[in-house]
Amino acid sequence: MIHSPQQKRAFITGITGQDGSYLAELLLSKGYLVYGLVRRVAFEDEAHRMPRIAHLLDRIELIPGSLESFPSLYGAIRKTQPDEVYHLAAQSYVSTSFDDEFSTLNANINGTHNMLAACRDLAPQARFYFAATSEMFGRPTQVPQDESTPFLPSSAYGISKVAGFHLTKNYRETYGIFACSGILYNHESPRRGFEFVTRKITSHAAMIKHGVKKQLELGNLDARRDWGHAREYMEAVWAMLQQKQPKDYVICTGRLHSVREFCRTAFERLGLDYREHVVSSDKFFRTDPEQLVGNPALATKDLGWHSRVSFQDLVYEMVDHDLAYYKAK
Ligand code: G4F
């Protein structure tokens, strides 16, 4: 990659994921030199293992490494000398964290610690972002939640993120690093993984429309979430690292919708009635927090950020994408 000395350098973990791919696009549009940490095995078949960043591969540099390996992160930070570090990578599927607490805690806590320690030693001037989550609130004592709401995590995933949040805060307070956490509520897009409920719904609705599936099995249809668009959440993430002082921010829409409403909107977009296709099964039930909804006031005040994409537009974008995706298959 050809670059000028004035170009800012960004290092992203989790660059192959939904958020990482949108963030890489945003940073490239702002003239950054973008580096991404990728597991060595992914290099064996870039086109298939990295579909979300396939269109960016000639404009970014991928560095092989793993969050569990401190030496590989050390080497990556030494090589790239970033101005900004976005630590997004994690085991982020809440259900999996119940099935495998050990790997969730190991990857998420040690991975964050390894990243922070490598940055402290090799790039202490770099600004550091940690991808925290509304799952840290668990069953919240306050509705809506904001930056002062106590954390009461109710999954190994939530616990691992609370630890990452406190590690990040500790590096800010103890070592003077510009380190902050974004407490992001659910954020979705056509690039969302198929195991998450929104993409599960839009992909199945599209397959049902094309006649290759008949039914969609979900868990609790009355579960509610504060769903926003991942692309615009990455704008808030970038803005956090441009502030004068590092601070933690809640990023959300402030509006709750149910899984049922998501189904109704998605199926209606395709001229279908969800009640004829969606069934609720115990297999996918979880004990869920009732009122996980955020207050984005601080982000609006400091970052000038607020969510602009409506719930309906988000659902329609995902459905339209999946309709075309399964047609092409
Ligand atoms: O899409 P979900 O699996 O996302 P969840 O668990 O809220 O977590 C996501 O958002 C968090 C906040 O940003 C992140 F920290 C986390 O990493 C991840 O990105 O489930 C959403 C809701 C839940 O209430 C779940 O119980 O949908 C409910 N649900 C109902 N039926 C289902 C299903 N979820 C899934 N995945 N599959 C179902 O069949």
Question: Outline of this structure?
Answer:
The chain has 329 residues and is an alpha/beta fold. Helices cover 41% and strands 15% of the residues. It has two domains: 9-187 and 227-251, NAD(P)-binding Rossmann-like Domain (Rossmann fold, 3-Layer(aba) Sandwich); 194-226 and 255-292 and 311-327, UDP-galactose 4-epimerase, domain 1, CATH 3.90.25.
If you had to describe this structure to a student in words, what would you say it looks like?
The protein is an alpha/beta fold. The protein has two domains: 9-187 and 227-251, Rossmann fold (3-Layer(aba) Sandwich), CATH 3.40.50.720; 194-226 and 255-292 and 311-327, UDP-galactose 4-epimerase, domain 1 (Alpha-Beta Complex), CATH 3.90.25.10. The protein has eleven helices and 13 strands. It has helices spanning 18-29, 46-49, 70-80, 94-99, 101-122, 156-175, 197-209, 230-240, 259-269, 297-303, 311-328; strands at residues 9-13, 33-38, 61-64, 84-87, 127-133, 179-184, 187-188, 216-218, 224-225, 228-229, 249-251, 257-258, 278-280. A seven-stranded parallel β-sheet has the order 3-2-1-4-5-6-11, with helices on both faces. The two termini are 34 Å apart. It binds ligand G4F. The site of ligand G4F has 22 residues, from helix 7.
Indicate the mean pLDDT.
Answer: 95
CATH topology of the largest domain: Rossmann fold
Task: List how many beta strands DSSP finds.
Answer: 13
What is the C-alpha radius of gyration, as a whole number of Å? Answer: 20 Å
Strand content: 5-15%
Provide the CATH superfamily of the largest domain. Answer: NAD(P)-binding Rossmann-like Domain
Instruction: List low-pLDDT spans.
Output: none
Counting helices, strands and paired strands, the structural category is alpha/beta
Q: What is the CATH architecture assignment of the largest domain? A: 3-Layer(aba) Sandwich
Cα-to-Cα separation, first versus last residue = 34 Å
* Count of spatially separate domains: 2
Globular, elongated, flat, extended or rod-shaped: what is the shape? globular
The main sheet orders its strands as 3-2-1-4-5-6-11
H/E element sequence: EHEHEHEHHEHEEHEEEHEEHEHH
Characterize the biggest β-sheet.
Answer: 7 strands, parallel
The helix fraction, in percent, is 40-55%
What is the count of DSSP helices, taking H or I runs of 4+ residues? 11
